[in-house]
Amino acid sequence: MAKALVFAEGRGEVLKEASLEAMGVASGLANEVIAVSVGPYAARLEGFADRVLSVQDERLSHPLATLCARAIAGAFRKENPDLAIVSATPFGKEVAPLLGAMLGLALMSDVTEVKKDGSTLVFVKPLYTGKVMGTYRVEKTPVVFSVRPKSYPVPAPSKSTSKEGFSPAFTDDDLRVSLVELAEKEAGEIDVAEADMIVTGGRGMKGPENFAMLRELASVLSEKTGAKVAVGASRSAVDEGWIDHSHQVGQTGKIVTPGLYMAIGVSGAMQHLAGMRNSKLIIAINKDPDAPIFSVADFGVVDDLFKVVPELVKRLKEG
Q1: pTM for this one?
Q2: Buried (b) or exposed (e) across 194-210, using 16+ Cβ within 10 A?
Q3: Are residues 164 and 276 in the same domain?
Q4: What is the pLDDT of residues 134-145, one digit of tens each?
Q5: Among 7, 14, 89, 318, which is least packed, fewest CB within 10 Å?
Q6: Which residue range forms the structural domain that includes residue 132?
Q7: Of the residues 122, 140, 175, the one at which a domain ends
Q8: What are the pLDDT digits (tens) for 98-122?
């Protein structure tokens, strides 16, 4: 493959780590990696892309999916790459289908593996809420695809990167949607979609005040490992109003694949399993030995979480 175009997504001044993961995917497939940076991320992309097209437009200070897709489509027509790659973040899941439609290209969404077999691309992605993995062969390029976060590691920077400005031509139709309000989550919280480890609470937490226990566990794990640790929640905990929807893991929340997933007081409804069953290591704590969560767990503790979690925190602090 000659060229791959990658959308470099961020929020404010911070580039999404998932975008760097996508750069690594692109480097393994194409001779030249071109990043489209919609925001002040050109410096952060040093070493990860061969070239950076830096889009500077005041209308993109808080990016909207339509405008980002239009900017990437403009860059695509300028560069004529073989591949257009987007991270399958919540925002990327809006951008990717818009981009495919604008370019009239097929979209392979939320893939966890992609490789070359001669001139053919082979994609692997979860199906049926992650119960099986589908393999697809794509014999014709160009193609648009999105990569599930945490499916690939962040590569080591190794490229000599050049930077240039790029101005997409927006039309009046592109500007029909405007940002009304941007509600930021609490400062310092890690997004579950970007976390290395997730500590998730369910209905068994019994109330919002008990999520403080999970935040303490997440803090200790982060301190001891240096990893990014997030607090997650099942749909039932969110529906009860115990924690914000941004923490929800599952089919109606966020799909995650962290290195470690701790399900605490989570029964394991099908929609929740769909969002986390591909985690690298799953530990479940639940007093019900028949809870469905144990069907996907690598390690299970059948006991009262209000005894287990404080003891775990204590042992971690001592260790």
Answers
A1: 0.83
A2: bbbbbbbbbbbbeeeeb
A3: no
A4: 999 999 999 999
A5: 318
A6: 3-175
A7: 175
A8: 999 999 999 999 999 999 988 899 9
